[in-house]
Design a protein that fits this description.
Blueprint lengths: L8 H17 L4 E6 L2 E7 L8 E5 L2 E7 L1 H21 L7 H18 L6 E7 L8 E5 L5 E4 L2 E4 L3 H11 L6 H13 L14 E7 L7 E3 L2 H8 L4
Antiparallel strand pairs: 1-2, 1-8, 2-9, 3-4, 4-5, 5-6, 6-7, 9-10
Helix pairs in contact: 4-5
């Protein structure tokens, strides 16, 4: 009788974590930055059809890196959960924290109970009526959650990008300053860095605090080009 090969639970978890990290690191990065009027999402993504950035609900946005089919399934599940909760109770009952908690439980279960973990990292952001009420949640492949403040980068060269953001970010930044900081940080790091990133290389959206209800808006290439123009 053959004795089954034994692998310790600790080694299994380490192998899963290494597998997920390598998959995420191969993806292009996403940066989320708070500015005076809301929250800006900037992704290096030349595709105009396969979005890394999306709306989840009235004041809540979603950004992801990793395998598209996996984070797209998470996005769809989040939209359905938000719609169901808002319809069953009240729109104010749908919060960034509740969606982040739901994602954390889902990712944690997938990581521990299945052979292959999701190769994804996501951010759930909620814009508040005031800047002090903004919320940024970063969720890892294993379901762990981080409550971020000011800025956060994920995927690719996230550590180096976060270091660049730390040097340039400040409170009360304008949208133009926030977009330029994010684009400059993305351009300064990566396999072919330093390089130039133009509107055709980027996917950009914002959660605008001043909008009456649905705060999410995408920036088209024309507006993005204007924001990225060098100051006279």
């Amino acid at each position: 009788m053959t004795v089954p090969f034994y692998v310790s639970p600790e080694q299994v978890m380490r192998d899963k974590a290494d597998f997920a990290r390598k998959g995420i690191a191969r993806g292009r990065s996403v940066v989320v930055v708070q500015y005076e009027g809301g929250i800006a999402f900037v992704a290096e993504n030349p595709s105009k059809a396969l979005h890394k950035i999306s709306e989840l609900y009235d004041r809540i946005g979603f950004a992801a890196v990793g395998k598209y089919n996996e984070f797209e399934s998470l996005r769809v599940a989040g939209v359905r959960l938000a719609d169901l909760r808002g319809y069953s109770y009240d729109r104010s009952d749908v919060t960034g924290r509740s969606l982040a908690n739901a994602y954390a439980q889902t990712l944690g279960s997938i990581f521990t109970e299945t052979a292959k973990p999701f190769e994804v990292e996501i951010i759930v952001a909620e814009v508040g009526v005031e800047a002090a009420h903004d919320q940024l949640y970063r969720l890892m492949f294993d379901g762990s959650v981080g409550d971020e403040r000011g800025y956060v980068a994920m995927g690719g060269s996230a550590d180096a990008i976060n270091a660049g953001l730390a040097e340039g970010w400040r409170e009360e930044m304008t949208l133009e300053e926030a977009i330029r900081l994010a684009v400059d940080s993305l351009a300064a790091h990566g396999d072919e860095s330093p390089r130039q990133l133009g509107p055709d290389d980027l996917e950009v959206a914002v959660l605008e605090r001043s909008r009456p209800r649905r705060c999410f808006a995408r920036l088209d290439n024309g507006r993005l080009a204007t924001l990225l123009e060098p100051s006279a």
